[in-house]
Request: fold
Amino acid sequence: MVAEFRRRYSLIGGSPLLGITRHQAERLEVELNGPGGGNSYRVVAGMRFSPPLISDVIQESAPESGKIVGVIMSPQFSPIIMGGYVRTLREAAESLHRERLAVKIAGDWHLQPYFLEALSQRVTEALAQLPADVRDGVPVLLTAHSMPKRVVENEPGYIKQLEETAAAVAELAGLQEGRWMFCYQSAGHTPEEWLKPDFADVMPQLRDAGHSHVLIAPVQFLADHLEVLYDIDIGARDQAERAGLKFSRIESLNTSPLFIKALASVVRETLAA
Reply:
């Protein structure tokens, strides 16, 4: 498995995720400190499993702060999946030994209006680039990272959030019922059952229904990384082309101005809660 993932990373030229996340932090800081915002916000990117570690960036950036706001870079919130980030941030803040340091962590923001608008804008932009004679009927697959079925059985609310995001984006993008579907991608390399349908299963069905194109639109991923640049751009493209479909995907949110506004709203709403 290690060799396989090294191969995948080599094919995409390494992951740009850390650089993009830092750019998102920079843009968010500017947005929060914009007209009327003063200069009271400092935004930094922290990772749980690799540098810059959350514990380190808290030590470096929070000594003079009275409040810390944590925003996990996933619009949908799962206590099982994201709980480790919450614990890591709280433990890092506690290590500062400051009694009056307030720590607030955002929960789910899967229906945040700017976030939904940013995603739907990406969908409409991608559709506009397709040939005029097909764009009004191209099927759109709104995808999320698959998970083991056993996890979901313990946490059905997380899947509901993913489905709600997909439905809201489809509505904003003007996609009629029957033209779009929610499905999964990036299932793990384990023998247990993972959530279906996977977009690999859907491609032949679209071909059999008479379609010639497909558009992939992730509703969970907020930046270019392995699950986008390999699993979609290489894996899904290959699956589509083998099924006889012309493939396209939406541009990732990355530092979309609307997406940065969404993050700023999440920060403000978390502080106000």
